[in-house]
Amino acid sequence: MTVVELELVLPESLAQAAAAAGxxxxxxxxxxxxxxxxxxxVDALFDVADRLAALDNPPLTExxxxxxxxxxxxxxxxxxxxxxxx
Length: 86
Prior knowledge:
Blueprint: H1 12-20, H2 26-54, H3 62-82
């Protein structure tokens, strides 16, 4: 665990309400931070998906997917053969 000290400047009414609700504890702040980090990760994933959708590339056919898989497999075999199987 790492100790982080925070000093918050809040309106008095908000500070009192948060303290009364038990929101100013390490456990609650940790949960809030984790939830926000997860939310940001999901938002980033959707941003990437939106950018990919906007590229206007035609969808891959099953044959395209199989060709890509085969190319990767061949590249791996070639790499293994060149590196002595490691």
